[in-house]
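Repro case for the chain-ordering regression, as requested:
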Amino acid sequence: QSVLTQPPSASGTPGQRVTISCSGSSSNIGKNTFHWYQQLPGTAPRLLIYNNYQRPSGVPDRFSGSKSGTSASLAISGLQSEDEADYYCGAWDDSLNGQVFGTGTKVTVL
Amino acid sequence: QVQLVQSGSELKKPGASVKVSCKASGYTFTDHAMNWVRQAPGQGLEWMGWINTNTGIPRYGQGFTGRFVISLDTSVSTAYLQISSRKAEDTAVYYCARGSGPTGTRGDYWGQGTLVTVSS
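-- result from build under test --
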């Protein structure tokens, strides 16, 4: 059972901006850094954003992360067809003493 | 470059054990923890636990104690996940993910995944 809540789906046309939310609590996002992962169909997840807003090398700057209180957000600007994937947030949870993931959001490019 | 190569798919009967391997290359194995993540068919990601590659001490997430054992062999830069007394609900893809540091639980590089199917 996930303790981080995401909308099940999001969509946009090419070039649009799409935002995905990740709602947590004071024991995870409210207190610790969070991360975002992208999972293309049939592949392993890859790290997209770490420590709230930092991008690993090779990740386009179209992807950005932000935080407000106990919630995190991932924004994809200039949406492209290759962005069609599942996106998961993740963070350490002090109460559970473990890593927790969000419920996942499927992004569709119309 | 960093690579995590996992063992191949497994089809096992309920009650048997399976051991999934994850061989690392392209970095110093003991500089980074190794995490394991489960993904049931059509479902999201679940963090199973991690192992400190310096001490060999594993830590398990909620719901993953007892039948699950994380271990490693530093001589061959390989981490292992063993699942005992498997049940149908263990059918899933299992991923190893390199931690961001010696005790990191953020997966900065991932293996390709190993499909474990439990069926009679």
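Ordering looks correct now. The interface with chain B takes residues 2, 35, 37, 44-47, 50, 56, 88, 90, 92, 96, 98-104 of chain A (CB under 8 Å).
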